User: Fold this.
Amino acid sequence: MMKPNDKIYIAGHRGMVGSAIHRKLKAEGFNNIVTRTSRELNLKDQKAVQEFFEQEKPDYVILAAAKVGGIQANNTYRAEFIYDNIMIEANVIHQAYRSGVKKLLFLGSSCIYPKHAPQPMNEEHLLSGSLEHTNEPYAIAKIAGIKLCENYMDQYGANFISAMPTNLYGPNDNYDLETSHVFAALIRKFHEAKEQNKPSVEIWGTGKPMREFLHVDDMADACYFLMQNYDGKQFVNIGTGTDVTIKELAETIMEVVGYQGELRFNTDMPDGTPRKLMDVSKIESMGWKHKISLKEGIRQTYQNFVDNMDQYI
Ligand code: GFB
Assistant:
């Protein structure tokens, strides 16, 4: 069990995921959290990562650093998504092992599952079919991270666990319209359309794909729960267990934002995976469940966007 004085390294503490975990640990009374910005420590640099671990010797590691983005970013920067993520994972996981870290949590994504995995997708469905094209490089890198943890556990007895969150949203999301995920993009698009009295908002694809959305504070709560309660080799899904179509998401966000124009579907843009709903029975059977509903999460996130717009755009 992690205790408040233990030294915890959060890799990626400025991103949406890492910053939520940082907030959660601080709220739980942790006072010895180690962080580095990407400028201070380039996680793709093997030697720099080795020196960092030799110097800091953290007790626990949460690996939330990654190159991430929405469907368009994944599909455009394909080489960077596979290279950057594999390098970060290999360096951090290997040096955590070498420096005797007591436990590490690696964070992946629901896109690790095959494009046509049975729904809802449970942990057994990994590597049971082909991946979806737009995010194959990212998914391959994340699967490599899972396999690093599993095999460091097998060969070295390292307590390195993995969690796979579904699509996330919340404070510190990326609001750049080219590289963001759908949730942040739609918050921004509807807000700007309302401010500028635009007659319609463009939604990429057909609006028919289904996605599951989890507030990042719920995800951080689940990560804390797993760090304190789970030492298994198999990774664990984190989600809500329910999903909506992109059209339904758009309609709910537009209602919260108070925009009254039209939706315009741009079918020249990709839909990506038709559906990726997590089977969350494993984590729920351990005693964890999400708390923030989608509607409440949209309200909170829109307020956070409005309050911090100068930082976000
Ligand atoms: O969130 P998103 O970019 O990523 O897109 P994925 C989800 C769906 O929303 C797709 C549609 O069908 C998009 O075409 N969409 C509609 C939009 N309007 C927009 C918009 O304005 N911006 C964006 N970005 N999408 C990513 C993966 O997949 O999800 C990553 O590429 C990762 O690897 C992440 O797994 C969680 O859910 O399709």
